[in-house]
Amino acid sequence: MEIRIGIQNVAREIAFETEMSKEDVTEKVRAAVNDNANLELTDNKGGTIIVPAGVLGYVEIGDATARRVGFIAG
């Protein structure tokens, strides 16, 4: 699952992939925003991303797509 997090007043977004389901990520985002707590997610490499809910601009949850690499003979 690909996650993109936009932070208020910061031009660059945080982008990473996680093994968490879309429902799990959505629930964590909702809980963090409702409780004004930190949003804490884990990426595929075992790292932890922590963002205070008060500075969240947006959270985009998308499907992980396989990137095609190579050349097409034609």
Structure description:
The chain has 74 residues and is α+β, with helices and mostly antiparallel strands. It has one domain (2-61). Helix content is 19%, strand content 36%. The strands form two sheets. A three-stranded antiparallel sheet has the order 2-1-5, with helices on one face. The protein is globular, with a radius of gyration of 15 Å. The relative contact order is 0.30. GO terms for molecular function: ATP binding. Keywords: ATP-binding, Nucleotide-binding. It comes from Enteractinococcus helveticum.
Summarize the helices and strands and which ones pair or pack.
Blueprint: E1 2-7, E2 14-17, H1 22-35, E3 38-42, E4 48-52, E5 56-62
Antiparallel strand pairs: 1-2, 1-5, 3-4
The total tally of domains equals 1
Structural class: alpha+beta
> How many β-strand stretches?
5
Q: Strand order within the widest sheet? A: 2-1-5
- Range of strand content: 35-45%
InterPro entries: DUF3107
Pfam families: DUF3107
Organism: Enteractinococcus helveticum
GO molecular function, one term: ATP binding
Please supply descriptive tags for the structure shown above.
ATP-binding protein; 74 residues; alpha+beta; two-stranded antiparallel ribbon; ATP-binding; globular; DUF3107
Question: Can you summarize this structure?
Answer:
GO terms for molecular function: ATP binding. The protein has 74 residues and is α+β, with helices and mostly antiparallel strands.
